[in-house]
């Protein structure tokens, strides 16, 4: 399906969006990738949604990406005798391993690893940061705290520990079971929650065994500090602003978002900006002006994708939320200021032959009357490098590997086309011309740029570029010599 924008839209599926008709409507409204949230829904629910997505993909004859978002280690307090208590600023409050029901003085925190890592002066945030505790003294089984910001604390509320790197793996036992399940299903991306270090990514990659690409969610201060190392071992990044905004001062999040997006662009790895983008559309058919500006900011920064969470999973207006994102994206990308920002923030990367080829492809396309850049890419590497250039013309990514086409659905500006196996460059040019004409990016009198790696099927070998006319004789010439 042809989109009139470059940024991709990720829509989360849930109770509001689990039927064939709704999922198809979301694709037709603009969704390119679907997120399956492993924190909610049984394996049967996830399997049913996966089956429907693949059916919609076949019916619409267009690749659709699927991202499984693993829950990660959830830290929560225990339960209270009365269900909830009110904490007053300045009052003492104790967290410990005692399983007895809590009261206004204490509650269980059933995570010994937290106590092992805590030090006096550390902060503990409860219930999305609404309650803030400061550790006064602590030991292997307890932490005596002072209530800094009070409020109501109730059963099983989440706990964030922003000041320390916790000795926790990013994958819980549940995550490992979920990972194996979704990899067997055939998802395209795995999103890792609460990544703190590169080792977390290595563990997931070892378990995935190449069955899915690995996307690291940046939602902890430790991940921001170790970002360069995490990016180096990840296939993609999600700037998950929910927990990031809890564990860091909220004013820190926008500059962090901007820095991370630019680093991902320079590394040619897709980056999603996520959380609360159109939050009010859970209950309203219209977003706020501030939300529209937030979505626009991510697009101006050059993010590969923007994501809907509860808006499409549990909201009353899932299709309208996708349509709103699509409309905002089209308007922003038609703004002359958009191109100025994108091009001023482009980093010149000239380390390899492949870097030079894709840079030349963009420059040729933008200085002559070229209608599209077509890249053959079995692994997706060539398409990622072309997308890093953020060209003014469409990018058509051709591949004979269905999995590659689906993964590239997350990449800026790529229109993914599945073709038959190609082993000669001339045959690749013919397929590229056919695709450009079929998608109506070019006519028989136009020209396109074709890039590929020869010999074929060698990842990262982009080494050839041709300016090809879209002549009819090319379309019907099946002779690869």
Using the alpha-carbon principal axes, give the shape.
elongated
- Care to count the β-strands? 21
Across the major sheet, the strand order is 1-2-3-12-13-14-15-16
CATH class term of the largest domain:
Alpha Beta
Derived from helix and strand composition plus strand pairing, the structural class reads alpha/beta
- The helix fraction, in percent, is 25-40%
Provide the β-strand percentage band.
15-25%
Q: Within the CATH hierarchy, at the fold level, what is the topology of the largest domain?
A: TIM Barrel
Uncertain runs: none
CATH 2nd-level architecture of the largest domain: Alpha-Beta Barrel
Identify the CATH homologous superfamily of the largest domain. Answer: Phosphoenolpyruvate-binding domains
Number of domains: 3
* Main sheet attributes: strand count, strand direction, barrel closure: 8 strands, parallel, barrel
Query: What Rg, in angstroms, do the CA atoms define?
Result: 24 Å
Distance between the termini: 32 Å
Number of helices: 18
């Amino acid at each position: 399906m042809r989109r009139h924008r470059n940024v991709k839209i990720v829509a989360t599926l849930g109770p509001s969006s689990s039927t064939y008709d709704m999922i198809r409507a979301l694709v037709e409204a603009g969704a390119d990738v679907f997120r399956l949230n492993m924190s909610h829904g049984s394996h049967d629910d996830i399997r049913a949604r996966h089956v429907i997505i693949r059916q919609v993909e076949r019916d619409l004859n267009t690749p659709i990406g699927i991202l499984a978002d693993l829950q990660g280690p959830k830290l929560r307090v225990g339960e209270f005798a009365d269900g909830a208590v009110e904490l007053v600023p300045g009052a003492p409050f104790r967290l410990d391993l005692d399983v007895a029901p809590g009261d206004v003085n204490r509650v269980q925190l059933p995570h010994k690893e937290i106590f092992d890592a805590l030090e006096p002066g550390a902060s503990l945030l409860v219930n999305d940061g609404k309650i803030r505790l400061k550790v006064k003294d602590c030991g292997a089984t307890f932490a005596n705290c002072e209530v800094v910001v009070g409020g109501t604390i109730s059963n099983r509320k989440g706990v964030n520990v922003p000041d320390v790197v916790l000795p926790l793996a990013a994958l819980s036992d549940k995550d490992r079971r979920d990972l194996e399940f979704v990899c067997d299903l055939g998802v395209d991306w795995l999103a890792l929650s609460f990544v703190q270090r590169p080792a977390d990514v290595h563990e997931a990659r070892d378990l995935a065994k190449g069955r899915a690409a690995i996307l690291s969610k940046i939602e902890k201060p430790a991940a921001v500090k170790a970002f360069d190392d995490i990016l180096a071992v990840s296939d993609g990044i999600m700037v998950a602003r929910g927990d990031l905004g809890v564990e860091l001062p909220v004013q820190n999040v926008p500059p962090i978002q901007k820095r991370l997006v630019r680093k991902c662009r320079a590394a040619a790895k897709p980056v999603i900006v996520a959380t609360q983008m159109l939050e009010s559309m859970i209950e309203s058919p219209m977003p706020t002006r501030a939300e529209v500006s937030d979505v626009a900011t991510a697009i101006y920064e050059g993010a590969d994708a923007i994501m809907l969470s509860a808006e499409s999973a549990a909201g009353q207006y899932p299709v309208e939320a996708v349509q709103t994102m699509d409309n905002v994206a089209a308007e922003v990308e038609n703004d002359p200021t958009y191109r100025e920002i994108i091009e001023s923030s482009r980093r010149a990367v000239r380390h390899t032959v492949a870097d030079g080829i894709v840079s030349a492809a963009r420059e040729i396309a933008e200085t002559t009357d070229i209608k599209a850049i077509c890249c053959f890419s079995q692994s997706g590497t060539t398409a990622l490098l072309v997308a890093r250039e953020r060209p003014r013309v469409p990018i058509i990514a051709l591949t004979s590997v269905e999995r590659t086409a689906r993964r590239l659905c997350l990449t800026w500006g790529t229109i993914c086309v599945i073709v038959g196996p190609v082993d000669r460059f001339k045959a690749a040019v013919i397929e590229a011309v056919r695709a450009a004409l079929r998608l109506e990016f070019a006519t028989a009198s136009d020209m396109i740029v074709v890039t590929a790696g020869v010999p074929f099927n060698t990842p990262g070998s982009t080494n050839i570029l041709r300016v090809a006319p879209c002549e009819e004789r090319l379309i019907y010439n099946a002779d690869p010599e």
